[in-house]
Design goal:
By secondary structure, this protein is mostly helical. The chain has helices spanning 22-35, 43-68, 70-77, 81-106, 111-129, 135-153, 156-163, 166-198, 208-221, 241-249, 252-284, 293-307, 316-329, 331-341, 348-364, 367-382, 392-403, 405-420, 424-443, and strands spanning 15-17, 452-454. It is globular and about 80 Å long. It starts with 14 loop residues before the first strand and ends with a strand.
Length: 457
């Protein structure tokens, strides 16, 4: 059988060549040495990373704009904490459901086209949604925004992975994920300040669509879309979607880090959505403090932005919030880097999508809504007259106790990360060897009679 017709990767991401594999071993050692050396980065590669970071920035700006004006949204639609949390849940559910679809497409078709379509859809639905006057339709359009964002989030990290290797890849991914806290912070600020300036919270939703139009143009005409595995000189072909999923499920490092990141997503989803509201309620109970929710959103946004790097309202609670957000933001780039280097190139978009599905399904898809439901139940419990509007003290205590659930979930995430450490080195070495042996097959015709078998898992 012609060796070129055989797909060079197997379900467990490791190839064994019977006979002499010295050339593959030598190639592996050469590639590992190159991964630890900073190589020259071209201007177009810098531009590509910059474009991806810009889109990630406005992505998270849009995602947390509503959180900055949540009190106004609740008043206009006359909803409680439970339905307010449902808004974010609808967005995340749509996001996670469509992520595997875009992950499958991203491993097989033009990533430039998919990303341009997704960003355009997200911009259009955000803009239209800002004019919707009924809660049901408003929630529906927030779901469509999640569909658009899924197309980008599953694909962008794999482009960086295909452009760079080793330390350079890690640094570029760190730069890319740095846009998450900065974009989230801008979301709080833009949402609250734009709404306050226009005396209408809806104007906060009309900022990112215009930036999104610029992003679509940059994707189409400037961004580089490398071949899959280009940075590693990998010529591995994609396998069936069923084999991809089976391989990921059998990958301990990938699954454990995904479970750990699910706990992080649960906590960040709940805190990001309810954080400004919780701080606002707490400050209103302080004697002699007169503050508006817009001001709290501004401060919370600034703290979120600063926490991604390592005011006068820096009391002890704000300092502790800063420390907590720094700890949460340490995870993003590290988890992405781990997920990419324990998965072979033709499966990386699928891996990103699968991780998004897991982390959001059991993480921030339900955490804002769950906290809202618990808060509403506690309000009824603490109120002397449940039919009346709860006092500020009751609202604060109810939300405070509801948010305590995040502490226990985060501890579970730490345990999963510790267990991941037991497998990560071994799984990375499997992928390195699979890539090197696939390249050796392409460059050494003398191995044309070699037999490839899957290693026992």
């Amino acid at each position: 059988m012609d060796q070129n017709s055989i797909t060079p990767n197997t379900s467990n991401q490791q190839l064994v060549i019977n006979g002499d594999n010295d050339s593959a071993t030598a190639l592996l050692q050469e590639r590992q040495g190159r991964r630890n050396t900073l190589r020259e980065v071209s201007f177009k590669e810098y531009m590509t990373v910059g474009i991806l970071c810009f889109i990630n920035l406005i992505n998270y700006m849009d995602r947390f704009t509503i959180a900055g004006v949540l009190d106004d949204v609740k008043k206009e639609f006359e909803i409680g904490d439970d339905l307010a949390g449902l808004l974010q849940t609808v967005f995340v559910v749509a996001y996670m459901v469509f992520a595997p679809i875009f992950g499958y497409l991203g491993d097989r078709y033009s990533r430039r086209t998919i990303m341009a379509f997704g960003v355009a859809l997200w911009c259009l639905t955000t803009f239209i949604g800002s004019y919707i006057s009924t809660f049901g339709m408003f929630a529906f359009f927030r779901g469509l925004v999640g569909v658009g964002e899924a197309s980008y989030s599953t694909i962008a990290p794999t482009i960086i992975s295909d452009l760079f290797v080793g330390n350079v890849r890690t640094k570029m991914l760190a730069f890319f994920y740095f846009a998450i806290p900065v974009g989230s912070g801008f979301g709080y600020i833009v949402g609250s300040e734009a709404g306050a300036a226009a005396h209408n919270w809806r104007w906060g939703l009309r900022v990112t669509p215009f930036l999104g139009v610029v992003a679509v143009a940059l994707i189409v005409w400037v961004m580089e879309d490398p071949e899959r595995g280009q940075a590693e000189d990998s010529h591995m072909k994609p396998t069936s979607y069923r084999d991809d999923i089976r391989s990921l499920i059998r990958n301990p490092s990938f699954m454990l880090s995904s479970l750990a990141f699910t706990c992080v997503a649960f906590v960040t989803g709940a805190l990001a959505w309810w954080g400004p509201q919780f701080i606002y309620l707490g400050l209103t109970l302080q004697p002699g403090v007169d503050i508006k929710l817009e001001k709290v959103s501004l401060i919370f946004g600034a703290i979120t932005m600063l926490s991604g790097v390592v005011g006068k309202y820096f009391y002890a609670p704000f300092a502790l919030i800063f420390i907590g957000e720094v700890a949460l933001n340490l995870n993003w780039a590290i988890v992405a880097d781990m997920s990419l280097y324990v998965v072979i190139p033709p499966r990386r978009s699928t891996a990103e999508a699968f991780q998004i599905l897991i982390s959001h399904m059991f993480g921030d898809a339900g955490s804002p809504y769950l906290v809202g439901v618990i808060s509403e139940a506690l309000k009824r419990y603490y109120s002397f007259a449940p039919e009346e509007t709860p006092s500020q003290a009751v609202q604060f205590r109810s939300l405070q106790y509801a948010l305590f659930v995040t502490c226990f979930v985060e501890v579970a995430g730490a345990v999963f990360f510790l267990i991941t450490a037991l497998y990560i080195v071994r799984d990375k070495q499997k992928v390195d060897r699979a890539i090197a042996e696939a390249a050796a097959q392409q460059t050494e015709p003398s191995h044309s009679n070699a037999t490839k078998v899957a290693a026992a898992e």
